[in-house]
Design a protein that fits this description.
SchA_CurD-like; 4 helices; 4-stranded antiparallel beta sheet; alpha+beta; SchA/CurD
C-alpha cells in the first residue's frame, strides 16, 4: 500500500493548539474514494500527523489514484474544518477553499517518496 506525505509550513510555538486541532479531527465520511464519475478509485487506509517546530506532516496510507484521494479529502467536512482552523498558524497560506485549490495545494505540498517498505509486502517463501 502506498503512502503519501504532505507538509504544512507553520508558525513555531503553537504545538499545543495544532495538536488540539488534529486531536479533534472528524474522520472522513467514507474511506472509499470515488472518481468524478462515481467509480471506485481507491481507499484511504490510515492517516497520521507529525509535528516538530515549524513543520507539520500528514501521512496518508491509501490504495488507488492519489489525485482521486486528494479530491475526496477536499470535500470531507472534517478536512475542510481542519484546513480552516490551521489558517492562523500557517506561515505560507494554503488555497484549500475549493476542490481545485485543495488538489493544487496537496500536490505542491507532497513530499517525494524515496522508499516504502512494509511487512505486508513480504510474502514468506514456501518451505
Amino acid at each position: 500500500m502506498p503512502f503519501a506525505a504532505i507538509t504544512y509550513d507553520i508558525k513555531p510555538g503553537h504545538e499545543a493548539e495544532l495538536a488540539e486541532i488534529f486531536g479533534n479531527f472528524r474522520r472522513v465520511r467514507s474511506s472509499q474514494v470515488r472518481d468524478e464519475a462515481g467509480a471506485a478509485a481507491g481507499t484511504i487506509l490510515a492517516t497520521a500527523v507529525f509535528l516538530r517546530d515549524d513543520t507539520l506532516v500528514r501521512v496518508i496510507e491509501y490504495t488507488g489514484d492519489l489525485e482521486a484521494v486528494a479530491r475526496h479529502m477536499a470535500v470531507q467536512p472534517g478536512v475542510r474544518e481542519v484546513e480552516a482552523k490551521l489558517k492562523p498558524y500557517l506561515t505560507r497560506p494554503r488555497d484549500t477553499d475549493t476542490v481545485e485549490g485543495f488538489v493544487a495545494t496537496f500536490k505542491r505540498s507532497l513530499l517525494r517518496t524515496v522508499a516504502q517498505i512494509s511487512a505486508r509486502d513480504n510474502t514468506p517463501n514456501a518451505a
